């Protein structure tokens, strides 16, 4: 039997490998995803800025400052 944790891990790997929109993105695709099976909520953002694209750390730019304050 596959655990919820393994299902989430597999889903995250699939999302991170996605390149469907590559032809339309000047910096290329880089899905930035962090999730835990124990989380009670999930925050999803769209079109992260250059800093997040470079670092791969979600919400590590001014949008994160606004979100957490």
What is the topology?
Layout: H1 4-17, H2 50-55, H3 62-68
Overview of this protein structure:
By secondary structure, the chain is mostly helical. The chain has one domain (4-68). Helices cover 39% and strands 0% of the residues. It is built from three helices and no strands.
Order of helices and strands: HHH
How helix-rich are the residues, as a percent range?
Answer: 25-40%
- The structure class reads mainly alpha
Number of domains: 1
Supply Rg: 14 Å
- Average pLDDT for all residues: 87
Distance between the amino and carboxyl termini: 41 Å
- The geometry reads as flat
Provide a count of the helices: 3
Largest sheet: none
Quick one: how many beta strands?
Answer: 0
Offer a quick outline of the entry.
By secondary structure, the chain is mostly helical. 39% of the residues lie in helices and 0% in strands.
Relevant terms:
about 70 residues; mainly alpha; about 0% strand
């Amino acid at each position: 039997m596959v655990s919820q944790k393994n299902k989430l891990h597999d889903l995250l790997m699939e999302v991170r490998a996605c390149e469907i929109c590559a032809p339309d993105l000047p910096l290329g695709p880089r899905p930035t995803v962090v999730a835990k099976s124990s989380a009670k909520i999930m925050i999803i953002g769209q079109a992260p800025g250059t800093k997040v694209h470079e670092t791969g750390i979600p919400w590590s730019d001014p949008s994160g400052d606004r979100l957490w304050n």
